[in-house]
Amino acid sequence: MPLSEFELIERYFRRCGAARADVRLGVGDDAALLETGAGMTLVAAVDTLVEGVHFPPGCSAESIGHRALAVNLSDLAAMGARPAWALLALTLPSAAASWLEGFTHGFAALAEAHQVALVGGDTTHGPLAVTVTLLGQVPAGTALRRGGAAQGDVLFVSGTPGDAAAGLALEQGRLAAGEHSEYLRRRFLFPTPRVAFGERLRGYASACIDVSDGLLADAVKLARASGCGVELDAERLPLSAALGALGTRQARELALAGGDDYELCFAVTPGALGRLEAELPAAQWGYARIGALCAAPTVRVRDATGELSVAATGYDHFSAPQP
Ligand code: ADP
Ligand code: MG
To answer: Is residue 318 part of a domain?
Structure first.
């Protein structure tokens, strides 16, 4: 027996994610009622994942549930915000219990880990697409932004960019499987949004962006928003051992232009570098210095041999080949 829309919501979404005391009214009424903290700014982000565009057809339901929330958590992390409440708009080709169980398992595990409550949404029939709206809070006046950095600020990235792009290439059969395939595939299917690190970067970073379209493309967005250009040193890119095993050239290309990393790229003024290194040690938080902001509007990537020419465009939905 297929589930009705009402049964589906009751069974899978009435209790999903963390229980929070500030949720006055969650799933079940016409809208949710949420208590916001005094002196706080509400932070809102929404992202859609469409089958065949953001994940390959046949991708596991657990991964889709995880990624739908992870991409939004990463946006809030980039603002230095603490996530709290999510709304989920789900368009499903069928109400298959096994798919819904996998999806809610992936979504709820990440939601609980970050104390996010699912407080509402919408459920419709159609081609598979998932939209999550995520709300969170930041102390008024302290949010990180893309703009705000200046020429001379040092640029950093968290984690090991490029892994997810290699994982997607493996999923799509564009890259031959090897001994690190499982690690790389998981980095695409289950990315780790840097929520705690984003919050800690308030007061240290002069600007911040999350890396979704590719490190170089997103670093350029941060630079442009700050009225600067950018210089990256390819020798400094923090490559995982698994990515490095593909060879330095391909590894660096994936790290610079890949995408789907959900890491943080941030700038720090020279005067704040000592505090950053003392209070948020790189060895503990997992980030690396990759370059600097320079006078607008140049974009330069160098390695030991000189200047590289790298396309800085990143992923664009309307210039990508249409399916
Ligand atoms: P309405 O028609 O008033 O929008 P719905 O019947 O669509 O109400 O939804 C009933 C309740 O279930 C609402 O509180 C809505 O926010 C919630 N809801 C519907 N779909 C989902 C979903 N996929 N995830 C979480 N909550 C949902
Ligand atoms: Mg509705």
So the answer is: no
